[in-house]
Amino acid sequence: MKGIDTVQVAEEKVRKYIKEIRIKGTRLLQKMVQEPSTRGEESKAQAVVIEKCRELGLEMDIWEIGGDGLASHPAFCSDRSNFKGTPNAVGIMRGTGGGKSMILNGHIDVVPAGDSNDWHRDPYSGYIESGKLYGRGSTDMKGGTASLLMAIEAIKNTGIKLKGDVIFQSVIEEESGGAGSLAAVLRGYKAEAAIIPEPTNMKLFPKQQGSMWFRIAVKGKGAHGGTSYEGINAIEKAMLVIDRLRTLEKERNERITDPFFDHIPIPIPINIGKLHAGDWPSSVPDLAIIEGRMGVAPNETQEEAKREMAEALSDVSVMDAWLRIHKPKLDWFGASWVPGDLDPEHELVRVLSESYTAVKIQKPFIEASPWATDGGILSKIGGIPVVVFGPGVTEMAHQANEYIKLEDVFDSAEIIALTLLKWCEISE
Q1: What is the DSSP annotation of 217-276?
Q2: What tens digit of pLDDT does each residue of 4-45 get?
Q3: Candidates 174, 249, 411, 425; catalytic one
Q4: Where is the Peptidase M20 dimerisation domain (predicted)?
């Protein structure tokens, strides 16, 4: 009975503390948003996070990624070769021993703001209106990172000791494939569970889609537009390839029967993002380049998805006399994210769900992620059970006038704090 009372008292303490530091927590998030942190420019926003970790007395590890066999690892994906001046940061709250450990992982990098004319105010203003904090990165995912730090502060500053270690990570390069989280895994950071507070609309995502960028070169034969019949139009041949990709997308998604995808219209899309062909209106184009993104199911490997794409292009070649000789050339380039797949019955899902219910007075909605995260790297490369859960409206990520509801940030902090108390266990 004493143990139950101890947990209840601790839960009340951390929830009360988080409510009392809402203004302080809001200011922390505002400071992070006001420091632009696109790729290669993460240092100032990361400094805000590091300062907070030091204020909390966490054991710090700050390093510039690139060593530990990072670039040669099969899962490495980045077009950067120099990460100087943009470090990863890890802060550890050591446990007393005997409890399960937890990684809390957030990324500090954000996508570009885009056309500033599309924003009502400066993209990095961090202004607050009607309970929402606006700015690039507020939802994706500095709001989640603020929740993590508030949860840790609540436990630390109320004098509660945990048995298990809490490993807070603020990583770079998530938006381009996860090199920062991969570097953390290769540096030896492992735990018995991990939470990534990406913007999930406060849903729990035990499964995450992976994705890869592809490029397909389709050859044609040039000719004058007036005698176009003398040439082979690469755009028209590319249309055959695109038609096959649409069919492939349909085939792949029809195989997905997992109920956690029921509310996602296309679980693993194949998106055509770019098409470039020709350089003169009066000429028959002799080359078309298709670029896009291929979704990868949680329960398949990237190699399996690549093989299926190659087989689909082979089908097109068989059906067309020109393409039979001049086969489309497939390349995989740029960004790549590993999928994640956790059993929804896993203890982490149960504990996080219980904490959610305690704060929100209702059960959480559990489904699969419609996009990729660093969860795939932590789970498939690091062998760490991962749930993606955090504040922020999914649809606001990467949009102009991005915002986050502050109430969701505070609720997430409470839910994560309660999860840490249960998962890592209170040291009596």
Answers
A1: EEE-B-EEGGGGGGSB-HHHHHHHHHHHHHHHHHHHHHT---GGGTT-SSSS-EEEEEEE
A2: 688 899 999 999 999 999 999 999 999 999 999 999 999 999
A3: 174
A4: 208-316
Alpha-carbon gap, residue 403 to 291, rounded angstroms: 30
> Long-range contacts made by residues 243-246, C-beta under 8 angstroms, separation at least 24?
244/312, 244/313, 244/315, 244/316, 245/270, 245/272, 245/292, 245/312, 246/270
Contact 285, 222 (CB under 8 A): yes
Cβ atoms of 425 and 7 closer than 8 Å: no
- Torsion over CA: 36, 69, 78, 106 (sign): negative
* Integer Cα distance of 104 and 374 in angstroms: 12
Q: Tell me the two tokens of residue 358.
A: 């305690």
Calpha distance 267→260 (Å, rounded): 10
pLDDT for 169 equals 98
Count of C-beta atoms within a 10 Å radius of residue 45:
27
Q: What are 385's two structure tokens?
A: 């059970």
Is the pTM higher than 0.85?
A: yes
Among 289, 241, 298, 243, smallest CA distance to 268 is for 298
Sign of the torsion angle spanned by Cα atoms 199, 201, 203, 208: negative
**What is the identity of the amino acid at 19?**
K
Q: Which residues of the chain have pLDDT under 50?
A: 1-2
CA distance 427 to 160: 8
**Positive or negative, the Cα torsion across 378, 40, 270, 212?**
negative
- Which is the catalytic residue, given 11, 109, 198, 408? 109
* 109 annotated active-site: yes
